[in-house]
Amino acid sequence: MTLPLALTMGEPAGIGGEIALKAWLRRREDDSRGGGQGGGTSPAFFMIDDPARLAALAKHLRLTVPIETIERPAAAGAAFGGALPVLPLTLPVPVQPGVVDPRNGAAVVEAIERAVALVRGGEAGAVVTNPIHKQALYGIGFAYPGHTEFLAALAGTGVRPVMMLACPGLRVVPVTVHLPLRAAVDALTTAAIVDAGRTTAEALTRDFGIARPRLAVAGLNPHAGEGGSLGREEIEIVAPAVAALRAEGIAAEGPAPADTLFHAEARRRYDAVLCMYHDQALIPLKTIDFDRGVNVTLGLPFVRTSPDHGTAFDIAGRGVANPDSLIAALALAGEMAAARRAAPLGG
Question: Which residues contact 56 (CB under 8 A, 6 or more apart)?
Answer without folding.
Answer: none
